[in-house]
Structure formats: structure tokens, C-alpha cells
MRP-L46 domain containing protein
Amino acid sequence: MKAVTPHALYRRICNLSLFTFKSESTDAGSNRWKIVASVCLERFPIICPELDATQRRYKELVNAVELENSLLSEHEVRLMEDQKRLEQRKTNLSDDTEESVITAQDFEDSSSQELEAFKKRYMLGTENVTDKMSLKRCLSRKLVLAVYNPTKKRWLFPEAYLNGDETLYETSRRAISTVLDADQFLLPYGYAPIGFHKFKYPKPVAKQNNAIGEKVCQMASLSRYTT
């Protein structure tokens, strides 16, 4: 067995330490992940959805049962009182000189006008469903904002890469700001992500970006939009 001198042993230890340091530096660069904040911006339904066939049949059945078993409503009582008042005026048996009485028919007319104004405001029945850029479409359904990412060539949530000492919330605001006014539309649920996923780049892309892949954190936000 060949003896190893202290000087040779020292050189071997130095070479081993240098090799280990270079390996750690290389791994630190190649093991880097890009952090992405992806924003799920939701607009919840503004109005109730229309009833389907089964729900309409059930509603008609419940209304029929209620009509058979219920007493007169206040509106029906007002209609009867208005009819009596008209008959008394015709026979001059009423001393009622008040002309500012709101009859049940007046109430029905004002209610009909209010309903028409409501339909016009929310464009019920005249909604242009082909206008995908309008927030006034599909008011009975939830909408989610999606933008086209030219780099990844697909439709995704607005997203941005984490820069420097930014927090995920700050990065999410920057991602939304590229599409719309964050102060006007963005109402975050919280400052922590609601979901997470990661994926690795293909080898050529990983070498080009000097990163293994992306770690995507989903941030949920509510739209401030109101009609």
C-alpha cells in the first residue's frame, strides 16, 4: 500500500472542496424556479338565473296550492275597496273628497313601470351575448377574466413574474394593471394564494431561461363592477 504524504492529502482535500463548490454553484443556477402570480378575477352573477322547465312546473304547482289555501292578500283587499269606493261615488253616497288616494290600479301601473325600468337597466331579453368584451353580458352567470398570452400562445389568467422583493399580492396587482385599472376593479379575497401548481420547461427552454420551470400561485380577486 502506497503511503500518502500530508502534502498530497492536503492537495486532494483542496481539489475536492473546489469541485464541491463549483457543483453547488452550478446546481444553484440550474435549480432556479420562476415564481408567477396568476390572478383569477371573478364577476359574480348580478341577477338570478331564469328557471328551467322543471323549476317552472314546480313554481306553478306551488302557486296553485297557495292560491287555493291562502286568504286574500293586501293587494286583493285594496282592489275590492277601490271597487266599493267607485260604486259609492257613482251613487253619491260617499263623503270621501280626498283625491290623492293611491288606488290598487295605480300601484300596479307604477310596479309595471318599475319592472320595465329594471329590464332596461339590466338588458333582460336584449343582451348581446356575442360581445365577449362587455361586463354587462351573462348577468345571471359568473364571469372569469382570461387574456391571451402571446408568449405561451394560449388563453390564461392575467399573470406576472415575481420581481425582486415583491410580494405575491403586489405582483398580482401588477398583472391586473396590464389589462385594466386595478384600483377600480380589483378587490382581493386575501393576500395568500388559493392554489398552486408547477411545471418544468423543456430542456431547450430551461437552458434559454436558466430555470427549471415555473411555480404558479393563483390569487383570487373579486371584480368591483356594478351595473
Summary: The chain has two domains: 28-44+142-223, 53-122.
